[in-house]
Design goal:
Blueprint: H1 2-39, H2 47-50, E1 83-86, E2 94-95, E3 104-105, E4 111-112, E5 120-122, E6 129-136, E7 151-155, E8 159-163, E9 197-205, E10 208-209, E11 215-217, E12 220-225, E13 228-235, E14 257-258, E15 269-277
Antiparallel strand pairs: 1-15, 2-5, 3-4, 4-15, 5-14, 6-9, 6-15, 7-8, 7-14, 9-12, 10-11, 12-13
Length: 278
């Protein structure tokens, strides 16, 4: 019994010593954290400068952001400040490299790629923008890989966001739907099956150039694919090239191009296309 008492007392002394060490360690960490916090405060920050400030002194009331009425989701309408590129009625906003746009406008308010007529291009050019576009691979699609519902959305007529049936269709990852073609694979694959509509919402920042034509800042793009983030502020290296590495060359605003790909599969359709200049 006596030995046990001595053992317990020794244990208590040991626990107290350990506790002191723990408290000392915590105190040291806290002091180090405080020193680091002071070192990494934003430039110009000072407790002295904020003394006596009221909450309203950091509240801004002007200028007010412009009012924009959002589109009606059920009716697939565009925001009030958007430029409507296709609403199912006509192709007046588009042309081809040969003249007028030659794709088919369908009674249901969609348009279908005409592979013989070639690509179509917006008549207007754009710099920074937000682009909304919906596309569908036909339910009876055939083919495989890059030969299965292939098309593309070219930003400023130079940088391709790939359109492809990637539901259950294996191909190279930087060539599937949602990729910046041959450059950046999508973060995930949210493609819907053939016969269902897919949606791209694209935020694009145009590049700037030095006097010698090289990039000062490269193009940057964020893409939501069916509401899922697949390109997160992705830097585009250069122009889209089928063979070889991306190229560069100074340019200004450019049109949106929709690709008429030469594969033998059934052509895809587009609808509800609008753009907002930023």
């Amino acid at each position: 019994m006596k030995k046990r008492t001595i053992f317990v007392a020794g244990k208590n002394i040991f626990q107290k010593e350990n506790m002191k060490r723990v408290l000392l360690l915590v105190s040291c960490i806290s002091m180090a954290g405080a020193v680091m916090a002071q070192q990494y405060q934003p430039q110009g920050y000072s407790d002295e400068r904020t003394k006596g400030m009221a909450t309203e002194m950091t509240e801004l009331y002007a200028p007010q952001p412009p009012k924009v009425t959002p589109g009606d989701i059920q009716r697939n309408t565009a925001p009030s400040d958007a430029i409507v590129l296709f609403d199912g009625k006509n192709l007046d906003a588009w042309r081809s490299d040969r003249g007028d746009a030659g794709w088919k406008v369908n009674p249901d308010g969609t348009m279908t790629v005409n592979k013989r007529a070639g690509d179509i291009i917006t008549r207007e050019s754009f710099g920074d923008f937000q682009l909304h576009i919906e596309w569908m691979v036909p339910e009876e699609i055939h083919g495989s890989g890059q030969g299965r519902g292939n098309s593309g959305v070219y930003l400023q007529d130079r940088y391709e966001l790939q359109v492809l049936d990637s539901y259950e269709n294996e191909t190279y990852v930087n060539g599937q739907a949602g990729s910046i073609y041959k450059q950046s694979a999508p973060l995930v694959n949210p493609c819907r099956k053939p016969g269902e509509w897919n949606v791209y919402d694209i935020i694009y920042t145009a590049p700037t150039f030095k006097a010698d034509g090289t990039y000062r800042t490269r193009p940057v793009v964020t893409v939501l694919f069916n509401g899922v983030l697949v390109q997160n502020a992705t830097t585009i290296i250069g122009t889209t090239e089928y063979i070889g590495l991306p190229k560069f060359g100074a340019h200004g605003d450019g049109p949106i191009r929709l690709q008429s790909h030469g594969d033998r599969s059934e052509p895809i359709s587009y609808r509800n296309i609008w753009i907002r200049k930023l």
